[in-house]
Amino acid sequence: MAATNDRTVTVFGGTGFLGRRVVRHLRAHEFAVRIASRHPDRGHRLFGLDDPQLQSVGANIHDERSVADALAGAFGAVNAVSLYVEHGRETFDSVHVESAQRVAAQAHRAGVERVAHVSGIGADSVSQSLYIQKRGEGELAVRAAFADALLIRPAVMFGPDDAFLTPSSGFSASFQSIRCSDAA
Fold first, then answer.
1. Cα–Cα–Cα angle for 65, 10, 74, nearest 5°?
2. Does 6 or 116 have the greater pLDDT score?
3. In this structure, is the dihedral angle defined by the CA atoms of residues 79, 148, 72 and 27, taken in order, positive or negative?
4. Nearest to 157 by CA among 24, 18, 20
5. Nearest to residue 61, comparing CAs of 6, 138, 126?
6. pLDDT tens readout for residues 37-93
7. Nearest to 23 by CA among 65, 64, 76, 63
8. pLDDT in tens, 127-164
9. CA dist 102 to 16, 44, 91, 113, 126, Å?
10. Do 30 and 83 contact (CB within 8 A), yes or no?
């Protein structure tokens, strides 16, 4: 397996909006990175194949074996998987609680030294918002499985290719014209 050294970090969701940036940051700081995604071909398209310290592997966070395989031999792990809209079996509970716990538990079993779990601002297990509630429950599940996990609570993130501005092209176009007119 390429991308294996004493500083290999497995990034779940490494082809997503935040995950791509995490992968680039880790490589810039000389970590070997294993991009764990349901679609490893996306990792190849995004990052190419010419870096021997970068590997894209197939992994489904709903499957214990594939999570364990993606973590084998890793020094660290980042869970940057997120879900904003429930659909079918992809629910806030299945992604933000069950799968987050699975990643943390498998990291603990594999002897991973560092785990960073990306949650969300205001995560609270007693919130009336189902999304925020499940983010909070996910944090509790992660900490129960990997006591020293780093919990990260970002606010809304936006930028090129995000899920915030890009879908609403009218808003995005307006935002772009404001930025252009401010520069004039």
1. 80
2. 116
3. positive
4. 18
5. 138
6. 998 888 878 887 788 999 999 999 999 999 999 999 999 999 999 998 999 999 999
7. 76
8. 999 999 999 999 999 999 999 999 999 886 656 666 55
9. 19, 25, 15, 16, 22
10. no
Beta bridge partners of 115: 77
CB 70 within 8 A of CB 59: yes
- CA distances, 42 to each of 9, 57, 108, 151 (Å): 18, 10, 27, 26
CA 58 from chain centre, in angstroms, equals: 14
φ/ψ of residue 21, rounded to 5: -70, -35
Q: What is the pTM of this model?
A: 0.84
Counted residue by residue, the chain has a size of 184
Which residue stretches of the chain are H helix? 17-28, 40-47, 64-71, 92, 100-110, 130-145, 169-183
